[in-house]
UniProtKB/TrEMBL annotation:
EC number in record: 3.6.4.13
Organism: Riccia fluitans
Catalytic activity as recorded in UniProt: ATP + H2O = ADP + phosphate + H(+)
Signal sequence range: none
GO molecular function, one term: RNA helicase activity
EC primary class: hydrolase
Annotated protein name in UniProt: RNA helicase
UniProt keyword list: ATP-binding, Helicase, Hydrolase, mRNA processing, mRNA splicing, Nucleotide-binding
Length: 121
C-alpha cells in the first residue's frame, strides 16, 4: 500500500502537485483493474496488455509494478516506446507522477540520448 506521507523514492514529503496527479490518475481505466493486473503478473512470466490510448498502460503500469516490489534489489522496470520523443515524454511524465527527478529515479534511453536512473531499488 502506498504511504501518502513520505515519498519512498526521495524520502521527502510529496508535493501538492503529486496529489493532484494521483487523483487524476485514479480515473484512468487501468486503475479499475489494478489488482487484477498485479494478480496476473504474479502468476505469469509474460502478459500481453491491450488497452485504448490514454488508458494508463504506459504511465501507470510501471508504477504499479514498482509499488508491488518488482523493481527492488537493483532490478528495473522498463517501458519501451517506438520513438525517441515518446520515450523522453513518457519518462518525464512518469517522473512527474512519482514526484521524483528525471535522471535520479526515472531514466530514459534512445539511440542518441541516454538518461539513466542513478538510484536503483
Amino acid at each position: 500500500m502506498l504511504n501518502l506521507t513520505i515519498n519512498r523514492y526521495t524520502n521527502g514529503p510529496y508535493s501538492n502537485r503529486f496529489f493532484e496527479i494521483l487523483e487524476k490518475g485514479k480515473t484512468l481505466p487501468v486503475w479499475q483493474r489494478k489488482q487484477e493486473f498485479l494478480d496476473i503478473l504474479e502468476r505469469n512470466q509474460i502478459m500481453i496488455l491491450v488497452g485504448d490510448m490514454g488508458s494508463g498502460k504506459t504511465t501507470q503500469i510501471p508504477q504499479f509494478e514498482l509499488e508491488a516490489g518488482y523493481g527492488v534489489y537493483r532490478k528495473q522496470v522498463a517501458c519501451t516506446q517506438p520513438r525517441r520523443v515518446a520515450a523522453m515524454s513518457v519518462s518525464k511524465r512518469v517522473a512527474e507522477e512519482m514526484d521524483v527527478t528525471i535522471g535520479e529515479e526515472v531514466g530514459s534511453a534512445s539511440d542518441s540520448r541516454i538518461v539513466l536512473a542513478r538510484r536503483q531499488y
